[in-house]
Design brief:
Elements (H helix, E strand, L loop, with lengths): L8 E3 L8 H7 L10 H17 L4 E6 L2 H12 L5 E6 L2 H12 L3 E6 L8 H9 L6 E7 L1 E2 L4 E2 L2 H11 L4 E5 L18 E5 L10 E6 L1 H8 L11 H4 L14 H17 L1 H23 L5 E2 L11 E5 L4 H13 L1 E5 L14 E5 L6 H17 L8 H14 L2
Helix pairs in contact: 1-9, 2-9, 3-4, 5-6, 10-12, 10-13, 11-12, 12-13
């Protein structure tokens, strides 16, 4: 017998759960794309997007995904034959480096292990060796969705400033924006990218580039940028269609408007605190389960763990068994382990991930943890008892503190 008949729960690190209000806003006839309410609505979104990113800088919106955003910001700032520095902490840092190489950009790669955040000292050494300032940008992923590690972005800015190196600091916040604390201007980030399908709670399809005047100046030094990727008109449109270099993604925009309203109503500080509390509940349960079984959190140091995604090792074949059981028997989909292969597990099936980003609440997370604990028992996977109880006590303590 399956108990999965009912509303499914997608507990993967993106696409995230879409609020009913967002879905309802998107369920409408096609609008006039030339004048009236839609252009006015989009113009009003720009200050709210700046609020989410904590910046006063420029905003460009693209019809694309995160991979497209890697290419978009590189196209505007780095020419073929120029160099970038990529300190990679997982699959997505490596992916950004691969995109750069495919564009003819030379990549200096600093590859970290799968349990470490970006090491500012290794970045410092690479920039110190660049006496001629050939490196045009440092490409850093704030939260690598594969490993769930969170890196210290402000520390990278401190290194660049201390060395007086002119490279742009470019940060991928696709997994972290509106989940983990991020302050673009305060932390000295020149370019930041994100996408709609995670903390912004909208279906995949929109990408965002935030950039400051220094990055805009570097764009002017790039001799040729394709019309589609060029952020110049997107960030400063004279006519509505220039926001998107063509037809607007109408229904995504309606959904985004509602999502931004929800974010503004809760407030960024409260959103960051909610994600931190729910992540803490997950980690508490995992610590109990792992006390008498094979489960381990991929990132041992809690201060380096993302509040949006948690990568876990259960070992083969248990990881795949648990995911398959949760989906078939309870309607809960757990995230795959991406880029986490091991010698005895070349496909990384022993790893899985919890997505806890965006539109998530205490009852959703406690339900997720209950399913996992039930799966351990049903599949006879060794584990410490009482993980869900520990998580409830953790959240009770958070609520008691107000």
């Amino acid at each position: 017998m399956s108990l999965a008949h009912g509303r499914p729960y997608l507990a993967i690190p993106g696409p995230s759960v879409i609020p009913d209000a967002v879905l309802q806003a998107m369920h409408r006839p096609a609008p006039n794309i030339y004048e009236g309410a839609l252009p006015e609505m989009v113009g009003g979104m720009i200050p709210d997007l700046r609020y989410v990113a904590q910046t006063g800088g420029h905003v460009a919106i693209y019809i694309t995904n995160g991979h497209g955003m890697w290419e978009a910001v590189l196209a505007n700032t780095v020419a073929a034959g120029e160099r970038v520095l990529v300190p990679a902490t997982g699959r997505f840092g490596l992916g950004w480096a691969d995109t750069a190489q495919a564009m003819g950009i030379e990549v200096d790669l600093i590859e970290h292990d799968r349990q470490s955040a970006i090491d500012p000292q290794r970045v410092r050494a690479a920039l110190e060796a660049d006496k001629a300032h050939k490196i045009r940008a440092v490409l850093a992923v704030h939260v690598d969705t594969s490993t769930s590690v969170r890196s210290d972005v402000a520390a990278l800015r401190a290194v660049l400033d201390d060395l007086q190196h002119p490279a742009l600091l470019m940060v991928d916040c696709i997994a972290s924006l509106a989940c983990d604390e991020f302050r673009m201007d305060d932390w000295g980030v020149d370019v930041m990218i994100s996408a709609s399908q995670k903390g912004l709670m909208v279906p995949p399809g929109l990408g965002f580039a935030f950039f400051n005047d220094k990055a805009a100046e570097q764009r002017r030094a790039v001799a040729q940028v394709s019309r589609y990727w060029d952020w110049t008109n997107r960030a400063n449109p004279e006519m509505f269609y220039q926001y998107f270099n063509g037809t607007a993604p109408t229904h995504h925009l309606y959904g985004l408007r509602v999502a931004l309203d929800m974010i503004k109503a809760e407030g960024m500080e409260a959103i960051w605190a909610r994600h931190a509390a729910l992540a803490g509940a997950i980690w508490t349960a995992c610590d109990v389960w792992g006390s008498a079984g094979p489960l381990t959190l991929n990132i041992p140091d809690p201060s380096l763990r993302s509040h949006a995604v948690t990568s876990l090792r259960l070992g083969a074949p248990h990881g795949m068994r648990l995911r398959e059981w949760a989906d078939a028997q309870t309607g809960v989909t757990l995230g795959l382990g991406i880029g986490m292969s091991e010698p005895d597990d070349p496909n990384g099936t022993g790893f899985f991930r919890f997505g806890h980003m965006g539109h998530v609440s205490a009852h959703m997370i406690l339900g997720l943890l209950g399913v996992v604990e039930t799966g351990f028992a049903a599949l006879d996977i060794p584990h410490g008892k009482g993980g869900v109880t520990a998580a409830t006590e953790f959240l009770a303590g958070v609520c008691a503190k107000g």
